[in-house]
Amino acid sequence: MKKSLLFLLLVSIQFVNSQELALVKKNGKFGYFTKAGTFQIEPKYKVAKNFSEGLAAVEDNGKWGFIDAQGNWAIPATFDNVKYFNSGICIVSKDKNWVYINTKGEVLKAPASEKLFDFDGGIAFIKQGNKVGLINSKMTVILEPKYDLIKPFENGFARVKNNDKWGIINTAGKEVVEPIYAEIGNYYKTTTWAKKGEAFGLVTAGKFIPVDGADKIWDFESQDITYARKGGKVGYIDLKGNWTILPIYDKAKAFSKNLAPVCIGSKWGYINLKAEFIIPPTYKDAEVFSKNGLAPVKENNWGFIDEKGKLVIPTQYGITAKGFAALFTDQGKGFIDGIARVQNEGKWGFLKPDGTVLGNQWFENAELFTNNKPKI
């Protein structure tokens, strides 16, 4: 019997530590909300940050520390400023000095750098002089500083700049695209877009393939097709640089679920891969479809439609955050893992796909849900 109780206790602790939590503000205090529509930690903090890797930074008497998912102090509040944990490491400030700490609050000795950079996926930048390189979470240099600039990694690849020319490296610091281009995009299925001279095209296996007439290309995202501009109009190209949908639209966004928002004049609708309008252009604005098959559309306010164009959630919400939700990007304007963050009459809340409000709760501010799983 005791073994069974111990097992259940361990399971419940593991569940609490692995669920997603959202930072919310209610009655002037911050707390943490669950996808079950309840408070994991009641609003009681004057200032707080999102959970990251099982820990959240909160302020106590002017100092910052970290709590766990039960609201217990994991690292005492002794810091002047803190950032977020990633790869088991966080940047903190104490006595005007910025240092790295681990999840136990222990200071880590890092290679020489003029500035400390956040870790992401086990890698962080270091800067020596005017050059930037890479270190891993073991504080070992994996790329000596050699680039003028390195952009954040996306799916294991980062854009790098030297002498005003751009290329791409992987997480081992190896160049997968030589830095010889005036502009460059993300790396998707061994392909990127780039600008060479005055021409825009795609780079595959080190070869630059111009795209006929293109004067701008956007990043590939979830499908093997992206949007590009020619003569002031927007169409779509494939991974070989062919125009698969002619540039006849005034504006466009990415394909998702084989549907893409496009604008003609001032109205937005959705086309399929054959350039057929599945949802007529009747909206003031439109965003891409989420994995659950719903997309935000705007009349006077925002609502959500399904893949057949049926309005399943009325257009009565705001979806764009200002200032407070720094992590709330364009990719956060729809449903994420079954929840959409919206604003209504000055309050923020979370919608479920059936249009009901999570926990029937509205907040003064609310962040997106973040994964609370501790780093092992």
Automatic annotation (TrEMBL):
Give a yes or no for keyword Signal in this entry: yes
Could you tell me the superkingdom of the organism this chain comes from? Bacteria
Keywords of this entry: Signal
Q: Any transmembrane segments, and where? A: none
Record's signal peptide: 1-18
Xref: InterPro entries:
WG_beta_rep
PANTHER family tied to this protein: DUF3298 DOMAIN-CONTAINING PROTEIN, GLR2918 PROTEIN
The identity of this protein, by name, is WG repeat-containing protein
Originating organism:
Flavobacterium cheongpyeongense
Organism phylogeny: Bacteria, Pseudomonadati, Bacteroidota, Flavobacteriia, Flavobacteriales
